[in-house]
Here is the input.
Amino acid sequence: MIDWTSVVKAFPKSAQKHMRRPDKWKDIPSLNDGYLMWAPPNVNRAYLLEDVTGNLNGWELSFDPKVRTKRRAEMCDLCKFVHGGRSCGVAFFSIPLSKQKTIGLYICADFACSSRCDETGVNAMRESLTPAEKLTRLHGNVFDLILRLHAETRD
Ligand SMILES: [Zn+2]
Here is the structure.
């Protein structure tokens, strides 16, 4: 069972200090997709919890709300949703790996990538993928990120 205490323990000490249990948090038996991502409102941080290595492991992402993307189209690097109009937009999230190394990428500012896979309309990319295929692509991109994080922090 994954309860909030084990979630917090999976994150680095620096992240544990300011982690707050999300209102909607329910203890879950396992990570269905191998990972879970969420962003609490108004804290400029987001969390990625995964068990790719067999152990629960958490990554804290942060973004500076003052840094806005200069990209014309605001596309999320994970779910490939193109933001515009009244959507939340993307934020440039960074994950510090060491004093010298940081990984950064554009992700939906609300971190709700999986729900974007069902969306259609002007903001959905004009592509022929079904929602299920988009979800598969999202999972692939998240796993790529997780593997990269592990590879870069190994030494
Ligand atoms: Zn996204």
